[in-house]
Amino acid sequence: MLKHAIIVAGGSGTRMGAPMPKQYLLLNDQPVLMHTLRKFAHAEPEVKLILVIPENDFDLWSELCEKHNFQIPHHLVAGGKSRFQSVRNGLKAIEGEEGLVAIHDGVRPFVNASVINESYTVAASQGSAVAVIALKDSVRKLLDDGKSVYQERQYFRLVQTPQTFQLAKIKKAFEITELHTFTDDATVYEHQGWQVTLIAGNPENIKLTTPEDLDYAAFLLSR
Ligand SMILES: Nc1ccn([C@@H]2O[C@H](COP(=O)(O)OP(=O)(O)OP(=O)(O)O)[C@@H](O)[C@H]2O)c(=O)n1
Ligand SMILES: C[C@](O)(CO)[C@H](O)COP(=O)(O)O
Known about the structure:
The protein has 223 residues and is an alpha/beta fold. 32% of the residues lie in helices and 24% in strands.
């Protein structure tokens, strides 16, 4: 079955506060995005990779590829103003509706190959596969009056990427006008009335968001 992967990296990394967007920061002397693209290329050698970055960064990316001798084939697509719009641009760049597409944050370079493989297998039979992990800490809900209440953590999951779908269904789902409740691709998919299928993610697959995440990334790479 035809397998695509859209790696979204069209953001500006405000919370990281680094001199350049976090997707280009170096981990072990290689930009974050190269680690992420390599994970997909190694896990699924036949995958068709689409990389979504801001159009203004196309020249920077091509310089980085040359400098780091990065040769994994991929198709560059211009990002949008929001993650939703970047994903939609990526979906529009795929011709036809055949096969599966994994949508993955470019700033999650620590995804396991087994999670990527499982996401395609499950999406092929179920329509979708969304990587999640269970919570280890207790959970409380904040109330308007300054109080808080206990929540049963077994009913909650933290949502990661990849979020993998049958291409025809996720293309149709993304035809909708963007809503503020669309925090990821699963929320767009289920807006159609379709149930998402959850699969186990890997705990190291964090989204590099704030500076302390880079320390954890360095630790993971040093093991
Ligand atoms: N317009 C956007 C915004 C975000 N993303 C991507 O979506 C992923 C998750 O977003 P987030 O971690 O929020 O990245 P940023 O938007 O870059 O970070 P911040 O919110 O701190 O500015 C990232 O890979 C990011 O590059 C995107 O492709 N296009
Ligand atoms: C898609 C995502 O990474 C799943 O956890 C997350 O929803 C992105 O959120 P952000 O607010 O764009 O960082």
